[in-house]
Known about the structure:
By secondary structure, the protein is of the alpha+beta class. Helices cover 32% and strands 22% of the residues. Helix 2 (47-57) packs antiparallel against helix 3 and helix 9 crosses helix 10 (352-359). The chain starts with 17 loop residues before the first helix and ends with a helix.
Amino acid sequence: MTSHVDKNLPSVIRVHSATTYKHGVDACKEATNRLILPASRTCNIPKTIRQQLKAWYSHKPKNRKFSKNMLAKLSSYMRAMLENPCGYGCEPFIDMLYLTVDVDSSVSDGLGEAVTQYEGNQLKLKKSGQTWMLKNNKEVYLNFASFTNRENSVIRIYWGLHDKVKEYRPNQRLLKIAFNPARHTEHELIEFFQWIKSVIGKGAKALLKAANVTRIDIAMDLFGVPLRYLLIDRPNVKHINYHQNQAATGKLVGTQKFGNPESTCFHVYDKVQKYCDVGPGFVPLPGYNVEGTEYIPITRAEKVFRPADTVPVSLGNLEDVPYFLKGTRIYCPTLINLLTPGQKLKVKQYGFAYWFRELKKQRWAHKKQMSRHLLKEDRNTLHAVQITALKRLKRLILYS
C-alpha cells in the first residue's frame, strides 16, 4: 500500500488540534479538487467546532467496530458536521462532466488534423486514434483524442459517426467532450477550451452554451465518518446494490449503490480505500502519523446525473442541475444500537440501506424509530455551494 502522507504538507492530524485538522483536510481537498479556491492557512476556527473536533478525533476514529459510547460521539460529530458542513470541510464539487456539441460536419471532419497540430503549455496530446482502441469502449463515435496534464488527468474528445449510427441517431451531436473538472486547474481548462473554440470557429461560444450535458457528477467528502456507520437511504430509488472490501475482520461494505449505474444514480463509498487501491497517489490523506499507516476515514457521497433521463440541461444553464442530496436520508449512527448482533453484521457487510430494503424488505420491529434518528443537513448552504461551483465552471468554459 502506497503512503499518501506528504511530509512536506501539514496533513497529520494531532488529535487535540483543530488547526491540524483544518490544515490536513485543506491539503486533501486542494489535491482532490484542483478548481477549489485555495483555503486560508491561518485558522480562526469557532470554539464550538474546535470542541467537537477534539471530542471526536481524540479517540483516533478508524474504520473499525465502535462501542455504544463511540457511536454516541460519532452521532454528535455527524450532527454538527451536517448542520455546518463548510465548517468541517464538507463541500460539494464537480467530479465529472460530459458535453455533446452540435458542431458542423466540416468541423468534425477537420478535427483529426487539428488534434495533430495541438500545441499547449498546460496540456499535452497523449493519444489519438479510433475508439475501438480504448478499453471497455462503448462510444458511438469513431475517433478520439486524449489530452493530459502533469498528473496524467485526461480531457478526452470524441468525433465522427458511422453511417449506421447516423441512421438510428439522426440528431446525434458530432463532438463530445469528457473530463473530470476537479482534476484540472483553471489554466488547463482555459487553455483547452480556447483551443476548442478556435477549432470550432465562428459561433463557438453559442454552440458551447447550447451543448447538452449528458453526464455530470457532484460529490462531497465526509471526513472522519466510516462508511459502515453512514446510515444512508434514498427511499424513492428502487434498485439498491453494494460492493464489498476484504478487511482483516472479514467482508466489509466498500460501496453502497442506489439506482441503475447506466442511468442517474447515487453512490457512497470508502474513499480512503479507493485512493489506496487505485490512486491518484498525489492526494495527501489526513492521518494520525507520518508513516501513512493510520488514515482518518473518509466517505464520499456522489450523485451521477444523466439529465437525458429527466429534464435536459445545457451548459448555458448548468447551475440548474438538481441538488445532489435531494431525496437522501441520513440517520443517526446510534440507530445501530437497536439492531441484533446478526443484523449489525449484515449492515457491516452490505450497508444499512441494502439490509433494510433488500434483506429485511422494510420489515423491522424498530422501523418507526427511524424518523426520530433522522439527521438534517444544511441544505441551503450545500445547494448554494453547488450552484457557485457550477456557475464558476460554466464561466471558465464559455468565457475563457
